[in-house]
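Q: My labmate handed me this sequence with no annotations at all. I'd like to see what the chain might look like in three dimensions before we decide whether it's worth expressing. Could you predict it?
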Amino acid sequence: MNYNKWVACWGNATSITDRKESVFAKDVTLRYPIRICFSGSKLRLRFSNLTGTEPVTLTKVLVARQQCDYRPSADYSGDKEESYVSDYMPDYVPLPVLFAGEKSVTIEPGKEVESDALSIDITAGETIDVSIYLGDYTQMNAGTLITGPLSKGQYAYGDYCSEKMLPADFTRRTNWFYFLNTIDILTEEKNHALVCYGDSITAQSWPDYLAIRAWETGRRNVAIVRRAVSGTRILRQYDCITYQAYGLKGATRFPIELNVAGASAVIIQHGINDIIHPVGVEVNPFRPWSDLPTVGEMQQGVEQLYVNHARQLGLQVWSGTLLPIEGWRTYTEARNDMRNDFNKWLRTSPIFDGCIDFDHAVMDPQNPKAFADGYDSGDHLHPSEKAYEAMANAVPECLLL
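A: Here is what I predict for the chain of 401 residues:
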C-alpha cells in the first residue's frame, strides 16, 4: 500500500475549560479512545495549550491499539455510561509518543506542539487509546467538552498509562478532552478530512453520527474532524470567568482550527449564540444589548472571517442553517426573525458551495419555529439524539466521497 499523505483522522477544538474551584491536576492519567477511519503506517499527534496561562508538561503520552466498536448500542440515549460495546485486543502494547526524541514535553501558554511521527500499522476501523500522564501540578485550562457515541474519555488518579484497563475504584468517565487536539495518519492519497465547525450543536453528537453513517455506508475515504466549542459566537467572546468556557470568537478560532491536514471542505454551522445571548445588563451584566449584531454583521463576519480564509486554504465551504429556538429561555419573535433572515442568506448566498439545511431536517413542518416531535432535547435549543442523527443524514453524500 502506498501511504504518502498526511490526513487528520480525528480532531477537536481547544478552548478555555469551565472555571471551577479546582483548576489544577496532579498524578492523573487521561485516556481517550479514538477510532481511526483510515489504514496507515504512521501517526502524529498535536497537543494544545492554546488557552492556558501557564506552561503545561505532559509527563508521558502512550498510544495502544485495541479492537473496539464504538457504535452506539441499541438503547443509547446520549447520557449513559455504558453506551457502547468494547472488545479489547488480548495483547495491549502501549507505544511511547515522542517529542523531538523525548518522552515528556512542555507546552508554553498559547502554543501547540506536534509529536514525532509514530510508526504503527493501523487498519481502518481500529481504535487506539491515547493515554496522557500528568505527573506534576498541571493547569487544566485547555480543553473542550464534546459528546456523542464516539466521544468518550476517562481519567484515573495515578499513573496507569501502560495498563490495559484503568482501575475501577480510581477512574471516572469524562467528556472533557484536555490538550489532545488532532491526530494525523500517514495514509493513501485518496483520503481526506471534512471539518465540522460550530458551537454546542456541533460539539454534541451529529459529527459522530456522520462518521458512523460514512463508515456504515461504505464511505471509507473521509474523516470527520470536529472543531466546535459550546457557547461560541461569530463576533464576540466573553472574558469573565463565568462564561470563559464559551470560548474564543470566530476571528480568533477559525484560522487556528482550520489547521487540518488533508482537509477538503468545511461545514459551518455557527451563529445562534450571537442571536440568543444578549439580554441587557439589567438582566445579566455580562450580556449587554450592544453585543446583539445585525443579520448583516453576521453575514459579513461569516464571509470575511470564515469563507475568505477557507478559500485561501483551497477548501469547499458549506453553510449549515440554524436550528429552531421557540421555547428557549431568551426566545422572542424578533430573535426568530433574525434566525430566519440569516438562514435565508445561508441557503441562497453564492459565496458557499452549498447549504446543508439542518433547520429543515429537524423542524416541525406545522410550526417551523420549533423542533419536530421527538427532536427536542428538552431545552428547546439543543436537539435530541434522534435529531442529531437526522442532522447527520442531511449532509450530502458528495461530501463523504
